[in-house]
Design goal:
The protein is α/β, with parallel strands linked by helices. It has 4 domains: 130 residues, Rossmann fold (3-Layer(aba) Sandwich); 174 residues, Rossmann fold; 77 residues, Helicase, Ruva Protein, domain 3; 57 residues, Orthogonal Bundle (Arc Repressor Mutant, subunit A). 45% of the residues lie in helices and 14% in strands. The strands form 5 sheets. The protein has a 5-stranded parallel β-sheet, sandwiched between helices. Helix 5 links the parallel strand 6 and strand 7. It is globular, with a radius of gyration of 26 Å.
């Protein structure tokens, strides 16, 4: 059967291929038909627009250079006129900067010429999975983003656009702004929504165990390795690996992480061969990675690899108009947990919250409301229940918690005694954990105790 005969076979049309080179176009069409997919083709931007207007497709593959325009123009047209249609660009080797521009405009992914058929098949499979799950925005389990302020609406639009491609995203924002919530939202709206979402706090893993935690290990590879164990990369295979506080990674581990991302393969500790993994990397930090690079504490090549696109999460003080909606959502969740009726904020309480600086952001708002619910005797939370000073600044809040600049900390002993620690010490430790987003290693360093001492106290208090 000739290529022309195969093209003539009746089948559903799934993919629009846009390229002005006949040989490239036929290669792509033949490869797609071997995957059981029907194709239409176009040789220009104008012809592609006409095809898109008259047909329904699940994917568009477009070359960058076309006779009457370029692929970027077509990407923009599809984003505005055909939202939800994945579009991938084909670019000449060496034009990665142009490809990144396409990703920022909303392209799903890109492949370089000469096209590797394996990479093309993987891209197509992910794209079609996304097209089939276009209703994921309303899917059960998709985590809603609460807020309609201009700053948050911009973040929501960017996140939903980034969900449609596979580019690495670096999420930057202060502690407590909800970086993991944003990462989960991107995952839940993308082609990998049916796969696992694996979050890991890079600062909470012991440096000695990092390689085993990330890549897994084989039985007998070191003392205590009684069985084979899969790592975080294997656990996230087919889904998303979220590297929270990536700036905490030691330099030695950064080298190994970079190789795993580049090669899409990992070697478990004690294994002789690498294992292929298919994960999308989302990362986050409250730190300025650019500054860490300049200080020699973060590898520049890894920074460029994970920072293809940066998503900034605004602090709560930049979206004060969202506080009422956030508070309503949090109070409803607290009531559901306790099995009661949601409490409501008095006008004075809401005004107090809206004037507050919120150095701890949304997480601090949750903590304040949970405490207020415990103190409140009726159905309405008053300003007195919240116990805020409206003019309290971030530096003042840090000073109150004992972690401001120059703060002195009491040195805890090695044991808390048979009767447990007193309330003052427990409060100090809880505040330290909240400040570090319950990163126990970082909290222990701030408190001047060992991680083992901190764990012992948490176990004593039933907080482990």
């Amino acid at each position: 059967m000739t290529f022309a005969d195969r093209r003539a076979r009746p089948q559903a049309v799934d993919v629009l291929v846009v390229d002005d080179e006949d040989d490239i176009r036929e290669l792509l069409e033949l490869s797609l038909m071997r995957m059981g997919l029907g194709c239409d083709s176009a040789g220009s931007v104008a012809e592609a627009r006409a095809r898109l207007a008259s047909g329904r497709y699940r994917l568009c593959l477009t070359d960058m250079r076309l006779p009457d325009g370029d692929g970027l123009e077509l990407v923009e047209h599809i984003q505005s006129a055909h939202p939800g249609l994945p579009v991938a660009v084909i670019t000449a080797f060496g034009s990665i900067e142009t490809a990144i521009r396409a990703l920022k405009l909303g392209a799903f992914d890109f492949v370089t010429k000469p096209v590797e058929l394996k990479a093309l098949r993987e891209l197509v499979q992910h794209a079609l999975r996304q097209a089939d799950e276009a209703a994921a925005e309303a899917a059960p389990g998709a985590r809603a983003l609460i807020g309609h302020s201009p700053a948050f609406e911009q973040l929501r639009t960017q996140a939903e656009k980034l969900a449609r491609n596979q580019a690495p995203v670096f999420i930057h924002g202060e502690s407590g702004t909800g970086k993991e919530v944003i990462a989960r939202h991107i995952h839940s709206l993308g082609a990998r929504a049916g796969g696992p979402f694996v979050p890991v706090n890079c600062g909470a893993i012991s440096p000695e165990l990092m390689e085993s935690e990330f890549f897994g290990h084989r039985k007998g590879s070191f003392t205590g390795a009684a069985t084979d164990k899969e790592g975080l990369f294997q656990a996230a295979n087919g889904g998303t690996l979220f590297l929270d506080e990536i700036g905490e990674l030691p330099l030695a581990m950064q080298v190994k992480l970079l190789r795993a991302i580049q090669e899409r393969a990992v070697r478990p500790v004690g294994a002789h061969a690498e294992e292929a993994v298919d994960v999308r990397i989302l990362s986050a930090s409250h730190q300025d990675l650019g500054r860490l690079v300049a200080e020699g504490r973060f590898r520049q090549d890894l920074f460029f690899r994970i920072n293809v696109i940066t998503l900034r999460v605004p602090p709560l003080r930049e979206r004060r108009e969202d506080i009422a909606e956030l508070a309503t959502h949090i109070l409803a969740r607290l009531a559901a947990r306790e099995g009661g009726v949601p409490r409501r904020l008095s006008a004075a309480a809401l005004q107090a919250l809206q004037r507050y600086a919120f150095p701890g952001n949304v997480r601090e708002l949750e903590n304040l409301l949970e405490r207020a619910c415990a103190l409140c005797e009726g159905d309405e939370i008053s300003a007195a229940d919240i116990e805020l000073q409206p003019d309290q600044s971030a530096s003042g809040w840090l000073a109150d918690t004992g972690f401001g600049v120059g703060a002195q900390h009491d040195e805890p002993g090695d044991d808390v005694g048979e009767d447990g620690a007193d309330e003052a010490e427990r409060l100090r430790i809880v505040r330290a954990l909240e400040q570090t987003r319950w990163n126990r290693s970082a909290a222990a360093r701030n408190l001047g105790m060992t991680l083992r001492q901190l764990r012992y106290r948490l176990q004593k208090w039933g907080m482990e």
